Structure formats: C-alpha cells, structure tokens
Amino acid sequence: MHHFTRAAFVATGFLTGAIGFSVSASAQTKWDMPVPYGDTNFHTQNIVQFADEVKSATDGGLEITVHSNGSLFKHPDIKNAVRQGLAQIGEILGSRLSNEDPIYEADSIPFLATSYDDARKLYDASRDALAAKLEEQGLQLLFSVPWPPQGIYTKKEIATVDDLKGLKMRAYNAATERLAQLAGALPTQVEVPDLPTAFATGRVEAMITSPSTGANSKVWDFLSHYSDAQAWLPRNMVFVNQAAFAALPEDQQKAVLDAAAAAETRGWEASVKETEEKTQALKDNGITVTTPSAELKTGLAAFGATMAEEWAANAGEAGKAVLDAYSN
C-alpha cells in the first residue's frame, strides 16, 4: 500500500502547476500571487484591483488569486517561489535583493531621491537595468510602486543621530541595516507582520519605515514619536514567471501588461495619498510627529553620503550609468 503525506500531495500539485507553464493555456488559467503585506495595505489593494482587471479583460480566462500577508510564501521566499514556478506571479520589496546585485537598492540610498518626482526619475533611470537582472533569472518585471518617504519611529524624541546609538533598530533590507550600523544602533531583521510582537518583547526599540507601515502596524500601541525624515522612497516590484507568461495567449499577455501599466500609475498616485492620510493617522492616534532638527538632518545626510559612495563603488559601471541618467 502506498502512503502519501499531505506535503507530498502539495508538492505534486506545485510540480504539476510548474509543468503546466510549458503547454498552451487552457480555457481558464489560474495563477497564485503571494504578496508580503496585509489586506489593508495600499500595495495589496492596488494588486487586488490589478488581478480584478486582468480577470475582467480576459473574460475570466486568467484568474489571479492574491495571497496576502505572507500567507502562501513568506517575504524572503517569494522571489524564488516565482522563479521556481511554485507561484506564477509575486510582489516583493525590491531592495531585499540587494545581496544579489546593488542595482536593486538604488531606491534605498538615503537622501538621493526624497520626493515623488525624484523617485520617479530614479526609477526611470534604473528600470531597464532592473528588468534585465530579473530576466536573467527567468522573471519579467511588470510594475513597481513606491512606499511613502521613510521616517524614524522611536519611543522618545530623536534630536541628533547620537540619540540612536545603542538602540535595537529594525532593519528590513541592507540599506536600513547599514544605516543602523552607521548610527551606532543594533540592526535587527523583522518582517512587518512581526512588528507588534518585536516591539512588545523589546526585540527592537526603533525603526525607519513609512507612515503607511507605521499606521497599519498601529505603532501607537508601542511607540510615541515619528520624525518625518523623508529619507528615501523604496519601491515594491511585481514580476511574473516568464514561462508562465509565455504560456498565455497573446490577448491575455496584453491584458496583463495593460493592467500592470494601469496599476503602476494608480499605485504611484495612491502612494502620494497614502503619505498624507497615514501621517495624519499617526497624529490622530497620539504619535508625536516632528520635522527633523537641523542637527539630525546633518547627521543623517552624512550617513547618506557615505552610503551613496559605498553603493557607487559596489554597483560599478551599471550603477554609474543609473546615477548619470538620474542626474541628467
């Protein structure tokens, strides 16, 4: 008698799905889309609308099921899951891939691009390079949407960078880890869903992130101050497994690309609105929102200059080309 575990059945299902990429799409194709953030997050809401538009444009021929909050695959595993065909499409914070290539963290160099206009210009300068890197791994970039500008969350007012020394600071990518190191803080990797527990248990004491993440995580339950540093605007990326995309009929491919273009435009507009609404939500719930002091700005800018030099050295000619295109 043969005994199959549930895990075996799941694995078989994934394998079957992956093999299915190579054959022509049937009357209805179903894709799984893991995303790292919850249903109330504006990125997730934008993606749900993207999926709805694809379904509508293909008359139900392509149905994308969005799995929010890391429920199908955790954030660190999403890219490889899509690459391996365990999911067909996914979303991640692009700068998480900086260990693979510096080009992925161009948007996270502190104080290089601090406004939406500058962030868009930087994205335009780096998009082709990003797409080429993903293509090397069998992935196709569909669209990218920025988070609101990053600020500093703490349990007390931060007047200078010296006030960050010794604090356990949440890091979500290499840039935030390096910034914490330069400030003399102790970087600790924590994913968004784990933030309340991490602060409640004292695992972290401060973080640099967006007003969006702060409000969605209800930081007023465990923090008191937000310094609106507007340090950088990191972007999420949505990409698709190239084999899965190639298996679609041409009209469905066009539907995906059209919906992606609309989602990118809509997402950038939503991010601007999100900045205003979520910063106000922080204030409404008792968080003290401040503009960085001149001393704090100077100290953070010095860290940014150091990180920009380090990034340029690591990124080589490709990085230089991006910075040149951005500057011109």
Note down, in words, how this protein is organized:
The protein has helices at 6-19, 42-57, 75-83, 116-135, 174-182, 195-200, 211-216, 242-246, 250-284, 294-327, and strands at residues 29-34, 62-67, 89-93, 139-146, 151-154, 168-171, 186-189, 206-209, 225-227, 235-241, 288-290. A six-stranded mixed beta sheet has the order 7-6-8-5-9-11, sandwiched between helices. A three-stranded antiparallel beta sheet has the order 3-10-4. The protein has a two-stranded parallel sheet with strand order 1-2. The model is unreliable at 1-12 and 18-26 (pLDDT under 50). It folds into two domains: 26-96 and 108-146 and 234-278, D-Maltodextrin-Binding Protein, domain 2; 151-232 and 286-327, D-Maltodextrin-Binding Protein, domain 2. It has 328 residues and is an alpha/beta fold. The N and C termini lie far apart (70 Å). The radius of gyration is 21 Å and the shape is globular. Residues 1-27 form the signal peptide. This is DctP (Periplasmic C4-dicarboxylate binding protein). Keywords: Signal. One of its GO terms (biological process) is transmembrane transport.
How many beta-strand elements?
11
Strand order of the largest sheet: 7-6-8-5-9-11
Question: How does the helix and strand content classify structurally?
Answer: alpha/beta
Task: Work out the count of structural domains.
Answer: 2
CATH fold annotation of the largest domain: D-Maltodextrin-Binding Protein, domain 2
Strand percentage lies at 15-25%
Write down the oligomeric state. single chain
Radius of gyration, CA atoms, in whole angstroms: 21 Å
Q: What is the CATH top level name of the largest domain?
A: Alpha Beta
Helix content: 40-55%
Poorly predicted runs are: 1-12, 18-26
The CATH architecture category of the largest domain equals 3-Layer(aba) Sandwich
Number of helical segments with 4 or more residues: 10
What distance lies between the first and last C-alpha atoms, to the nearest angstrom? Answer: 70 Å
Averaged pLDDT, please?
Answer: 92
**Biggest sheet features:** 6 strands, mixed
Estimate the global geometry from the Cα principal axes. globular
* Helix and strand element order: HEHEHEHEEEHEHEHEEHHEH
